Amino acid sequence: MTTHQTLLLNDGEAIPQLGLGVWKVSKVDARLAVNHALRHGYRHIDTASIYGNEEGVGLGMQDAGLPRESVFITTKIWNADQGYDSTLRALEASLARLRLSTVDLLLVHWPAPGLGKYIDTWRALIEAQAQGKARSIGVSNFDESHLHTIINATGVKPALNQIELHPLLQQPCLRCAHAKLDIATQAWSPLSQGQTFNHPIVLGLAEKHWRTPAQIILRWHIQNGVIAIPKSITPARIEENIQVFDFALDEQDMAAIASMNIDKRLGPDPLQFTFPAGWSEVCELAQRRAGNAG
Ligand code: NAD
Questions:
Q1: How many Cβ atoms are within 10 Å of 280's Cβ, its own excluded?
Q2: Which CATH number fits domain 6-289: 3.30.390.50, 3.20.20.100, 3.40.50.300, 3.40.1410.10?
Q3: ∠ CA 71-47-226, rounded to 5°
Q4: Is the CB of residue 167 below 6 angstroms from any atom belonging to ligand 1?
Q5: Is 23 near ligand 1, meaning CB less than 6 Å away?
Q6: For ligand 1, is residue 266 a contact (CB within 6 Å)?
Q7: What is the pLDDT averaged over residues 10-39?
Q8: pLDDT in tens, 100-117
Q9: What is the spatial distance between Cα 37 and Cα 66, in angstroms, rounded to a whole number?
Q10: Distance (Å, rounded) from C-alpha 57 to C-alpha 46?
Q11: DSSP SS3 for 51
């Protein structure tokens, strides 16, 4: 069974089109889930320093025992670390926690325009790439104007933009901007956190194709040329979510899912998001947990 398909990024690097996301996953569970995923065909893991589980991801990779070059690892620079020097320091800390000398993709997690630091942060990512510590560099939660700002300031395009994208929030304008700029689109919360599993259109297509609702939605992303990083720590679901390369949705199926868009965000608005109330406690907790790694 094929479990693997890659897309070519604008810097010439290949990215597996389906990966495992590990947001809200403890270090222990991340280790188990990453190991399980890598043993069942996944070659792409999406973490972030703020998730507090980079050590678990690194250990899960070790447990699986695959050659380093066969696994694609993404991490992200958290808002509190934005700025040129602090970004480079944060990357060193992430690499140490992951037990890696290089990540395959390094992202600016949020533009956090209120901080006014994302251009300097982007310059640091360019430096990290020049130093060989990040094979590809990109951004997350950037809108079209943020993309133009960093490209105009540095002449360097991000390889991809990781954005909230699922049947309820299909982001047609931003995806069109990405296509024009040759920036790949990566979907976070690709399964709309489960909110569309009981939608009649999804259920109808699941019945038509003898697939689960999660597989129908992931297949829709794949056929749209989107990179998807569904999260699960349940072994059977991890296995289910990658079995999407052996069937196809037809044009009508794709149009039916396209009709589900209601522009509904499940996460924060990137224009507003910096540190919501209570967030500093969350950051501290994540960093304390990261510091306690064994
Ligand atoms: P998701 O859309 O991947 O949904 C995850 C939920 O669906 C979980 O509760 C999981 O148990 C359930 N699920 C997964 N597979 C299932 C299956 N086959 N059957 C039934 N239920 C299933 O949501 P997410 O975790 O928010 O997003 C995925 C990943 O995206 C994250 O883990 C993280 O890596 C990334 N992310 C990035 C950002 C960002 O700002 N860049 C923000 C949020 C998430």
A1: 11
A2: 3.20.20.100
A3: 70
A4: no
A5: yes
A6: no
A7: 98
A8: 999 999 999 999 999 999
A9: 12
A10: 9
A11: helix
